[in-house]
Amino acid sequence: MTTPKATTHVTQNEALIFERSQTGRCGYRLPALDVDETPIDELIPSNLRRDDDLAGVPEVSEPDVVRHFTRISTWNYNIDLGMYPLGSCTMKYNSRLNERVARIAGFANLHPLASERDAQGALEVIYELQQHLAEITGLPGISLQPAAGAHGEMTGVMIIRAYLDARDGEASSKRRVMLIPDSAHGTNPASAHLSGFTVKTVRSTPEGQTDLDALRDLCSAGDVAGLMLTNPNTVGLFEKNIREICRIVHDAGGLVYMDGANMNALVGWARPGDMGVDVIHLNLHKTFSTPHGGGGPGSGPCCCTKELEPFLPVPRVVRGGDGFKVDYDQPESIGRVKAFYGNFGMHLRALAYILTHGRDGLREATEAAVLNARVIAEGLTSDYERPFSDPPMHEVVFTDKRQGRKGVNTLDIAKRLIDYGFHPMTIYFPLIVQGAMLIEPTESVGRQEIQQFVEAMRAIAREAQEDPELVRTAPHTTKIGRLDEAAAARKPILRWKPEEKSATA
Ligand SMILES: *Cc1c(COP(=O)(O)O)cnc(C)c1O
C-alpha cells in the first residue's frame, strides 16, 4: 500500500484550488449594496448576463489562495532560481534595472496612436536602439518590428526576395532556392518555405563546419537566392570560413542571411556585416535582456546592408529636421509585418541593457559567456563524449555515447539533472548529432555555479556506470516523474470538473 500522499509533503502534494473549496468560505466581504439594483438590470441586457450562480468557482480564504499559488509556483524552475543551461536558446538572467526601465510610466502608458509630437521620447528610444544595433551588427538598415526570432527570419527572407525581384525582374522567379545547413534551427526552413522558397540542405563536415564543396556544388545551379546560416552554428562552433562562404554565395548571385539568435557569442567582438552577411535577425529576448520563455512578447529586429534597406518594413523611425518621425514613404518596402512599431517594452529593455553595459561591458559579457561554455567543455570531456574537438563558443555539445553502453540515454541524463536542482540542457538538438546534449551556461553564472553544474553532470556519469537504473527512472525529487508526453500533448485535460456524486451517496 502506498502512503497517502497528502501526509508526505505539504508543498509537493498541494491539491487543486477547487479541491480546497468549502461552501461559504470567502476571502473578502463587501458592504451591503446601498443603491437600487434595478438600473443595473436595465443597463446590462439579459443576454450578456450569466444566469448560473457562479457554480464551481472555488470558495477559499485569502491564505488558502496565497499558499496555494505560492506552493505551486515552487514546482516551476525559473531563471531567478538557478542556471538554465539550454543550448541555442540563450536563457540568461535579466537585470531588474531593465525591467524597471520598461515600467517607467511615461513609456509604459504611452498610447500607440499618440501623435508623433507627443511620442518624441519613445521614437528617440527606437531610433537610438537602431543605431546601437547597427553598430553591433555592422549592418546599417534596421527594423524593430518583428516580434520574434522566427518573425525576423521571415522578414529578412522576404527582403531578400523583394531585392532579387527588383534586381533581376522576371528572371528572379528562377532564383527560388534557399540553402540551409543540416544543423540549422527548424525555424529557418519554415521561414524560407513561407516566403516561397524551396529549401536545399547544405551538409556539415565531420568537424561541425559548413561543407564548402557541398556549398559550391549547390551554388553552381544558378537558382540560389541565398543561404541561411547560423554563426556560431548550432553545434556551438564559429564558422571559420564565413568570409569564403559569403563569397561563394555572392558570386552565385545570392545573398547571405544570418540567424543571429547566437549573437551572445559575438557582441562586441565580431560583426556579421564585416563577415559579408547581408541580412540578420537578432533575438532581443535572448541576447539583449528580455525575459524569455513562456511565450511572452519577444523581439526579433531585422538588420541589413544599405543595399537592402529600401525593402525594410514600414513605417521606419527616422530622424527628421526637428526631431524623430515615423516614415511611411518607402515605395520598395515589403510592407508592415507587425502592428505599430514592434514590442516597445523589449526595445526599452534592450537599450537599457546596452547602455548599462557600455562597449566594454558588452565585450566582457561575451567573453564570460564563451569562457563559461569552455569551462564546461573542459570539465565534462573526461566523462562525456564530445563529437567536435574545436573549442566551443557560447555553447557546447556532448552525447550519451558512453552512457548508452549501460542503457542510459540523453533523456535519462537530462531528467536526472532535475534531481540535482538544475534545469535540463537542450536535448536531441541539433539533429545532426545523435543523442545530443547542448549546453549554454551564458555569462550570468559564476564560477561556483558552473562548478556545481559540472560536478552534478559528473556524478550522473558515475551513476550511469554504477547504478544505471537510478538514472533511467529519474527524476526522483519532483512532484511527478516521467510524463506520458504524447498523451499530455494529444489528450490534454484542460478543465477541472467536479466529481459526479454517486446515486447511492
Ligand atoms: C531561438 C532561435 C530561433 C527562433 O527564435 P524565436 O524567437 O523563438 O522565434 C531561430 N534560430 C535559432 C538558432 C534560435 O536559437
What are the salient characteristics of this protein?
alpha/beta; single chain; 10% strand; disordered N terminus; Aspartate Aminotransferase, domain 2; 505 residues; binds pyridoxal-5'-phosphate; 7-stranded mixed beta sheet; 36% helix; 17 helices; 3-stranded antiparallel beta sheet; Aspartate Aminotransferase, domain 1
Question: What's the arrangement of secondary structure elements?
Answer:
Elements: H1 38-43, H2 62-73, H3 96-102, H4 105-108, H5 120-137, E1 141-143, H6 149-168, E2 177-181, H7 187-194, E3 198-202, H8 212-219, E4 224-230, H9 242-251, E5 255-260, H10 272-275, E6 279-282, H11 284-287, E7 302-304, E8 316-320, E9 323-327, H12 344-380, E10 396-399, H13 401-404, H14 410-419, E11 426-427, E12 436-439, H15 447-466, H16 468-472, H17 485-490
Parallel strand pairs: 2-3, 2-4, 4-5, 5-6
Antiparallel strand pairs: 1-7, 6-7, 8-9, 10-12, 11-12
Helix pairs in contact: 3-12, 5-12, 6-7, 8-9, 12-15
This protein binds pyridoxal-5'-phosphate.
Pyridoxal-5'-phosphate binds near residues 148, 185 and 259.
Low-pLDDT parts are 1-6
Distance between the termini: 26 Å
**Rg over C-alpha atoms, rounded to the nearest angstrom:** 27 Å
CATH superfamily of the domain at 137-356: Type I PLP-dependent aspartate aminotransferase-like (Major domain)
Overall mean pLDDT score? 93
| Structural classification | alpha/beta
- In total, the number of strands is 12
- The helicity comes to 25-40%
Strand content: 5-15%
CATH top level assignment of the domain at 137-356 = Alpha Beta
Main β sheet profile: 7 strands, mixed
Order of helices and strands: HHHHHEHEHEHEHEHEHEEEHEHHEEHHH
Per CATH, the architecture of the domain at 137-356 is 3-Layer(aba) Sandwich
